[in-house]
DNA sequence: CGTCAAATTGATCGACTTCAATGCTCGTGG
DNA sequence: CCACGAGCATTGAAGTCGATCAATTTGACG
């Protein structure tokens, strides 16, 4: 009962990334620097040379990293695997507010109240670096550079939330899904993986909750994107066929989805 | 040409707030502590005793504090007035991502890239404390307590974004508006003002953009809330008549708005 | 007083939701 | 080994809320 699907080469050269992208200047360089500053080594999971005490914690697929409302004890940096974070409404509806892959930080939102306002569960076999709050708060004197990096990581999260807020306003289902796929592809790329072939780790329901639509609409949007020849979809395996078309689709604000020059293909 | 509307007692005991709420444990205590730590004094706007250099900047109604894409030079703490922050789409659509009143911090989202991803404009005569980035980055050694407070302020913003994301999913227009009003009322309360009588500083269009609906729908939602006797509305002056009813309305996820036992009152 | 933007209200239309049925994959146990 | 069930995913049909277009009113300001 190891990994349920083909996840190859996970332990090889995980942290010692090359300078990564730096082209579009996204968060990846922050993350790379963050992990460098942590001084962690993915080979054994130990933190030698790190100015702060870091431990590693494994989280099985489907298991929670922390529960909603739980006391905050630490923040976490994803070493491997994927997480979803969500809040539960009174009526039991799960509102997904984000997905986190390798190098991303979980638990920032708990700093202000000391309680986790969200719940984080692993979507597959995962592991995280654990930075206790006491260690975090003593970072300022011990490792100002790391402190700065954490500030920037938080700032990145603010930006991504602003993106999400914009996505949820006046955008068609196809555009939302297109943006999600592009964002996901970029996340894969910043991890050094292929950005054309994607394997979605989350269910349609999770995607739907994240995008603010129903899972049926997500499904229909997928078929529309396939009909437009932007992507090919086989269950959770996605291949991006026409990235420019997909970007154009994702860029389109306002309603109405226009497929390119094909009228009806029954 | 002072204040265009009845904003009373602004200079009196602005910073030395009492312990404020602490009941629902919201951000207000953070903010109060933040301003205490800044060592600023609202009477003269100077910062004596502050471990870091703080200046004050006035921003006229309708003027921008910073533009979208501008180089980030500082972060700002609102001393007086109100701001809206928004991003402009390619087609010119203004996506409002937040409103900021006294004690709230603007510019955090620019830390990661060094450029402001959003634009902030004052909704009325306003002023801000300016904390330059160089000062911010030297805070760790000079004033670790302030550094921690800024971390918490950022964390609060993350929480509020998560709220907004949840609001934009599967919630009726009336519920969205109800949540907005409650949030706004709480913001007023944390500033020591009345939470029953509100004066909205922003247009219906701004509210609509923030809530992810059109301004016509905002207008209709207002009339529905009035018909339900939850609030009374006179242009931008709002009075909350039935806070429990409003909360119940705001809590309702999923569609369908039910007005309490009144069928037709023509 | 005239102009302009904000705000309200109405009518129509469409995209998404909702309810419902079917396929599909995978894990469990007969 | 195959049947069975459970969750995920896809597709269809009908209803609805909000978007859109449009007209009117109100208020602010020169």
Which features does this protein show?
4-stranded antiparallel sheet, globular, disordered C terminus, 266 residues, alpha+beta, homodimer, DNA-binding
What is the number of helical segments of chain A per DSSP (H or I, 4+ residues)? 8
Oligomeric form of this entry?
Answer: homodimer
Biggest interface, chains and residue tallies: A-B, 48 and 48 residues
Instruction: Write down the overall mean pLDDT of chain A.
Output: 81
* Class per helix and strand makeup of chain A: alpha+beta
The overall strand count of chain A is: 11
Please give the share of residues in helix of chain A: 25-40%
Classify the beta-strand content of chain A into a percent band.
15-25%
Distance between the ends of chain A: 42 Å
Radius of gyration of chain A, taken over Cα atoms and rounded to an integer in Å: 19 Å
* Uncertain stretches of chain A: 1-27, 261-266
Spatial arrangement of strands, main beta sheet of chain A: 1-8-3-6
- Main beta-sheet strand count, sense and barrel state of chain A: 4 strands, antiparallel
Please trace the helix and strand order of chain A, writing H or E for each element: HEEEEEEEEHHHHEHHEEH
Shape of chain A: globular
State the gist of this model:
2 copies of one chain form a homodimer. Chain A has about 270 residues and is an alpha+beta fold.
Written account of the structure:
The structure is a homodimer of 266-residue chains. The first copy, chain A, is α+β, with helices and mostly antiparallel strands and 266 residues long. The first copy, chain A, contains 8 helices and 11 strands. In chain A, strand 10 and strand 11 form a beta hairpin. The first copy, chain A, is globular, with a radius of gyration of 19 Å. The first copy, chain A, starts with 27 loop residues before the first helix and ends in a 15-residue tail after the last helix. The N terminus and C terminus of chain A are likely disordered. The first copy, chain A, binds a DNA duplex (30 and 30 nucleotides) through helix 7.
């Amino acid at each position: 009962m190891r990994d349920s699907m083909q996840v190859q080469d996970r332990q090889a050269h995980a942290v010692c990334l090359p300078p990564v992208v730096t082209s579009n200047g996204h968060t990846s360089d922050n993350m790379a620097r963050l992990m460098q500053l942590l001084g962690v080594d993915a080979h054994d999971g130990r933190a030698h040379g790190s100015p702060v005490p870091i431990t590693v914690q494994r989280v099985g697929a489907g298991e929670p990293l922390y529960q909603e409302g739980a006391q905050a004890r630490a923040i976490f940096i994803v070493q491997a695997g994927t997480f979803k974070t969500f809040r539960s409404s009174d009526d039991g509806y799960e509102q997904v507010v984000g997905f986190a892959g390798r190098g991303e930080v979980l638990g920032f939102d708990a700093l202000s109240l000391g309680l986790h306002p969200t719940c984080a569960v692993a979507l597959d076999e995962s592991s995280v670096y654990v930075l206790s709050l006491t260690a975090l708060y003593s970072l300022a004197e011990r490792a100002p550079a790391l402190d700065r990096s954490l500030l920037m990581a938080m700032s990145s999260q603010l930006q991504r939330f602003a993106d999400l807020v914009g996505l949820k306003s006046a955008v068609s289902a196809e555009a939302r899904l297109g943006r999600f796929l592009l964002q996901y592809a970029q996340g894969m790329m910043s991890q050094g993986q292929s950005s054309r072939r994607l394997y979605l780790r989350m269910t349609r329901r999770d995607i739907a909750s994240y995008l603010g639509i129903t899972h049926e609409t997500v499904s229909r949007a997928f078929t529309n994107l396939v009909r437009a020849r932007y992507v090919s979809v086989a269950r959770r395996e996605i291949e991006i066929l026409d990235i420019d078309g997909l970007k154009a689709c994702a860029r389109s604000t306002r309603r109405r989805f226009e497929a390119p020059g094909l009228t009806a293909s029954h």
